[in-house]
Amino acid sequence: MSDAAIEIEGLSKTYEGGKQALDNVDLTVPRGQIFGLLGPNGAGKSTLINILAGLVNKTGGRASIWGFDIDRHPRNAKVSIGIVNQEITFDPFFTPFETLEIQAGLFGVPKRERRSMELLRAMHLEDKAQAYSRTLSGGMKRRLMVAKAMVHAPPVLVLDEPTAGVDIELRQQLWEYVRGLHARGVTVVLTTHYLEEAEELCDRIAIIHHGRIIANEPTRDLVNMAQEKLVEVTVDRDVTALPENRCFQQIELKGDRILAVSYNKTQVNAGEVLAAIQQDGFGIVDVSTREPDLEDVFLNLTRAA
Questions:
Q1: Domains and CATH numbers, the chain
Q2: Which residues contact 178 (CB under 8 A, 6 or more apart)?
Q3: Partners of 231 in the beta sheet?
Q4: Which are the contacts of 166, defined by CB distance < 8 A and separation ≥ 6?
Q5: 267 by DSSP, 3-state: which?
Q6: Distances from the Cα of 111 to the Cα of 36, 79, 147, 152, 188, angstroms
Q7: pTM (2 decimals)?
Q8: Of 211, 228, 219, which Cα lies nearest the Cα of 290?
Q9: Average pLDDT of the chain, as a whole number
Q10: CA distance 54 to 58
Q11: CB of 34 closer than 8 Å to CB of 190
């Protein structure tokens, strides 16, 4: 059996009409990680997830989940994965408890082994167990979707934009639960547009754009790919003309006395930037720097692609 939670080779999908959503994608998600799959809207993330879920037929390539090929062992592959889609999908006339019981039944989980109340408790929905699902708030419905994906205790959990429309407190509760699952050995695949969320949570991140993987690195290595750094310098007098120097990639005025300078950290250091400003006759009153983050890398890679 493979050591990968998800293994994808040459995966392609072309829809009717010629739209190519995935173009020869190779991707391995190691077991036991929180793995980020990022990309702009329409990049191919949802198509890839729906192929793994058995909702979309691939055009070419192969994929396996927990060592089970999705074509040769579809039943074992589906049992090995829980997927929380962007769209909220459950019957609004069932209660949360009934929703989880029905889902567990569909996966063949015996009644004595079902964990419906345990999952509702973990999702802070215990007091809504017998309410109609249609009466739940948007954040509660999202958490019910997570519980629904976990009824059969899959070793792989895919979260597709799980915190969209969820307030900060509920988001923190959700990530607390996800970290707990991860600590118990569940492999988590996350797609999100909150890049600071991915940077904080994920061990490794792949970026997909126009149906192709354009980066796949440990999170810290990916962030370190950013070469641009920003320094804001408060000077001792009003700026009437911006200083010029070859070590500045870009310089702009923020307020009468604050200069925002970006520079390439692999070629220049902050000391050289400050010295260049002083050469123009300015005194330095205050300095603050901003380290590059995942958003900088994401934008640079997708623009280049």
A1: 4-223 (3.40.50.300), 228-292 (3.30.70.1560)
A2: 34, 157, 159, 188, 201
A3: 261, 289
A4: 138, 139, 142, 174
A5: coil
A6: 34, 17, 16, 12, 26
A7: 0.80
A8: 228
A9: 90
A10: 9
A11: yes
- Which residues lie closer than 8 Å to 68 by C-beta, 6 or more apart? 76, 77, 80
Q: Give the strands of the sheet with 204-209, arranged side by side.
A: 81-84, 156-160, 187-191, 34-38, 204-209, 212-218
Q: Dump pLDDT digits (tens) for 28-86.
A: 999 999 999 999 988 999 999 999 999 999 999 999 999 999 999 999 999 999 998 87
pLDDT tens, residue by residue, 215-255: 999 999 888 887 778 889 999 999 989 999 989 988 999 88
Closest C-alpha to 99, from 145, 53, 54, 136: 145
The contacts of residue 175 (CB under 8 Å, 6+ apart) are 197, 201
Q: Are 6 and 156 in contact (CB under 8 A)?
A: yes
